Fold these 3 entries.
Entry 1:
Amino acid sequence: MFDEVAAGYDRTNTVLSLGNDRLWRIATTRAIAPRPGQKILDLAAGTGASSVSLARSGAEVVAADFSPGMIAEGRRRHGGIPNLRFVEADATNLPFADGEFDTVTISFGLRNVNDPQKALAELLRVTAPGGKLVICEFSHPPRSGFRALYRFYNDRILPLVARGVSSNADAYDYLNESIRDWPDQATLSGWIRDAGWVDVAHRDLSFGIVALHRAHRPRG
């Protein structure tokens, strides 16, 4: 499914999010605070849009994704960036060494993993002691009035727009279902703690449509 939408994926996301995807990417990059020499794993990186913004800091960035089509599109677009490499990888069985990265991040991909709690444990394994986790993911607006408006948009408007701008509208029916079935902010925070992360915190973006979760691997 993701292979089929790779070419137009970023454009479609910008349209469907009403441009908010760029703001969410900026917030995520600021939370990561990339710097020269830092080793960063950007998991579920898709075509590498988020990875590029991290690599511009001088950090050494690995853009990993389960979809070969996404990886191929990312290499085609951004293969010339020397401190950015693309790797096909399963989030529940990462092909990296223990403690390999200073920071690990995943944006809008954790809910697509068949075992997200196992993925959180794998991310912990490949993070150096004291290293950082940043997750940007769809969530549930806490205010009931806005939550109802958001559900109306996802159920009625988003499918119509997706059929007009996407090469595979059925993929965005899945998107809507995965957002609806995904747990809320508190539940995801609990999963992160259960995986062994500490200093777990989150803040809402766009009134809770998205939540930015942060944590650290214990130093001991």
Note: The mean pLDDT is 89.
Entry 2:
Amino acid sequence: MAEQLTRTHPLETWSTAFEGLPDGLRITPEPFVAMVDVRVGAGGPAAVRGTRLPTVPNTWTPTADGRLVWLGPDEWLLTSTGTAPEALEAEVRQELRPAGGTAVDVSAQRIVVRISGPRARDVLVTGCSVDLHPRSFPPGSSAQTTLGQAGVVLLALAPDDFAVLVRSSFAGYLATWLLDASLEHTVPTDARP
């Protein structure tokens, strides 16, 4: 009988480095999250798993156990912390099939990194071309952008709390980039010359 592989998080070994961050900044890799790419054409259902699909570009809405992120006019990313990826895909596919919609499990594609604290926005601004001012990117906003040179989906969860969805293969690069970008925030602003 073949041995089952144990799933490990790409940032499992980074916890010590993340503990050494300056005050006002926390970086936390989130446990694996089930993710399903949802496609719904015109005339399709307006909700998935009881949550209305966000129709305003670059927004996200909370679900019972995750988030529903607008990716395009007919595409959303559904995340779930309480349902296994295969079960989530099967459930959503069953729900969308009558209207011609599709659901594809993309859980292995990305991981989620939380960046929070009063200095989180400052670190993100260092390598992101999106205007992250709270007036332009308030909680509930999302953007498909680059952070450093990694393609990400960025979510504003609260004024000082962000989720970064990055491809698993870029997780190490992003962790290194975030640690480097946080260096300029190790000296309090009022102590700088």
Note: The radius of gyration is 18 Å.
Entry 3:
Amino acid sequence: MNLTKKLSVVFLGAVLSISAISCKKEVKKEVPAKFSIESKTITVNWTGYKTTDKVAVHGVFQEITLGNVKNDTTAVGALDGTTFDIPVSSLFSKDSIRDSKLKTLFFGVMDATVSLTGTLNLKQDGTGNVDLKMNGVQHKVPVTYTSSGQLVELEGSLNLEDFKAQSALESISKACFDLHKGPDGVSKTWSEVGISAAIYLKKE
């Protein structure tokens, strides 16, 4: 092999080596997306019931403060273990008279219930619980959820008796006696309260 051919082979080998190195550099590992939660992207709803026909009364809590916030590769993982603090003063039902009664004659009768506090615990199978503290009582409220992309929607139902809140229930029932009468003339305030939340998570 003459010198020219040798140089050509060496040059070709060098080009191939550089190309291989360049290709390796271009291969990048795919980084999983991270989900995170912010209080401003959460809507917390409540539903009370009145009359023997169980007429629903809807409302929201307009403020929520979060704790133990973390990032995770799934929306459910980011939510699991999150703590919350919801001031009862942020209660809103589009009826100022009703809101005032609920704040003073319902939550105001409870033991040290300026806020509703707790922890959100979610499993991967669409179930979980809200470990809620109200009226000085800690109790786990079962919930179900659906997760679609960045949106997680939770739903559950609590019984006020589980929180020893019979006095608060009697107080609001008495204050709204006539308003909670149905066509049968019976006044009834249910101990069941529906809860739900829509949570839109950030994705990075």
Note: The radius of gyration is 28 Å.
